[in-house]
Amino acid sequence: MTDTNIHKGLAGVMVDTTRISKVNPDTNSLLYRGYPVQELAAKCSFEEVAYLLWNGELPTDEQLAEFVEGERSQRALTPELKAVIDALPVTCHPMDVCRTAVSVLGAQHPQADESSVLANMQKSVSLFAAMPAVVAYDQRRRRGEDLVEPRDDLDYSSNFLWMTFGEEAAPEVVEAFNVSMILYAEHSFNASTFTGRVITSTLSDLHSAVTGAVGALKGPLHGGANEAVMHTFEEITTSAGEGDVAEHAAGWLDAALADKKKIMGFGHRVYKNGDSRVPTMKASLDKMVKHYDRADLGELYTALESAMGERKNILPNLDYPAGPVYHLMGFDTPTFTPLFVAARITGWTAHIMEQLEANSLIRPLSAYDGPEERHLA
Ligand code: CMC
């Protein structure tokens, strides 16, 4: 039977089942394959969580060792991919580089159009292994710095930071980065994941689906918000006159709301009482503020959050604490959303494989409200 009601933005529409993650807005909880994300962030490496998302269970020591070996052996940029990245202007957004890189990796893949579970699992691990080098190298080339080769004696997060900054990061920085990757890894039928599932539903290939997902993530209403948060902080800081930080933040916010602007890093389609991932990321932000001795950034964070709560009663989402965490670590602001890509590759590809298990072409209807039928003279 045709449902003729319009579901703008598909809000509140249940599209399919998933076993990968469960978002419960009533209890502000998020489970990956049944495990609370906070527990995973506290006790697991990102490699273990990636394995969990793809396989449904955490790895045994033996399985993890095999998985890690496979991942570490595929970390280096191929000369062909490096040449493509070098050909892109440094004026383009780093998300354009990510999107292009995924596409190139697809074209290079020996089993590009093979969609067996084994082939898709191998492609997923390859993408997971390769994205850090893409993101790290792109930030470096924009700064006029040379490529830093990956190290296979470092875990995923340590190696990511190593390739970006060319030095080993402090353990607390590695830990905060690992937490951010885990929190960003998966979030059910969000816009980019759904994009990936739509593309997969046509029986297109995994890299095409991920390329589309990267495009969806780029927008500021989705992944682009972590970058936008930092722009907000910069605007508040540079426009600051007399008075304390709370006054500057409130003044900036009042002007932005009067202009009907959306405040990036706040609000969520599903969580209306707070994003389940924020307390964990905020705890990491507090550690980073202390580590880098940047109490000023912590104060600005709190000031804007309070002002937004007072005026709109809208709470922060994950992008709000993640943006300043990445800033403190030394990432350039436009690199923040590519970091989200590196994490979400896991969730996207898990969904792509799940979509193929019981595929049905995703093809909704539209209610036509254009001109009545008419004819050429
Ligand atoms: N700033 C100002 N007002 C807001 C915001 C915000 N960030 N979020 C919601 N509102 C207001 C909105 O203006 C509307 O007010 P009114 O009813 O008076 O028109 C009301 O709250 C409902 O908002 P909505 O836009 O209908 O809610 P939605 O569920 O469609 O939007 C959202 C969810 C995430 C698109 C929106 O909250 C937003 O634009 N937030 C800023 C962008 C952002 O931080 N995105 C990251 C989302 S979470 C992580 C991720 O997926 O990447």
From TrEMBL:
It holds the Pfam family Citrate_synt. Gene3D superfamilies: Citrate Synthase, domain 1, Cytochrome P450-Terp, domain 2. Pathway: Carbohydrate metabolism; tricarboxylic acid cycle. It catalyses: oxaloacetate + acetyl-CoA + H2O = citrate + CoA + H(+). The keyword Manganese does not apply. InterPro entries: 2-MeCitrate/Citrate_synth_II (IPR011278), Citrate_synth-like_lrg_a-sub (IPR016142), Citrate_synth-like_sm_a-sub (IPR016143), Citrate_synthase (IPR002020), Citrate_synthase_AS (IPR019810), Citrate_synthase_bac-typ (IPR024176), Citrate_synthase_sf (IPR036969). GO terms for biological process: carbohydrate metabolic process; tricarboxylic acid cycle. It comes from the Bacteria. GO terms for molecular function: citrate synthase activity. Keywords: Acyltransferase, Transferase, Tricarboxylic acid cycle. SUPFAM superfamilies: Citrate synthase. The active site is at 268, 319. One of its GO terms (cellular component) is cytosol. Belongs to the citrate synthase family. PANTHER family: CITRATE SYNTHASE, CITRATE SYNTHASE, PEROXISOMAL. This is Citrate synthase. It comes from Arthrobacter caoxuetaonis. The lineage of its organism: Bacteria, Bacillati, Actinomycetota, Actinomycetes, Micrococcales.
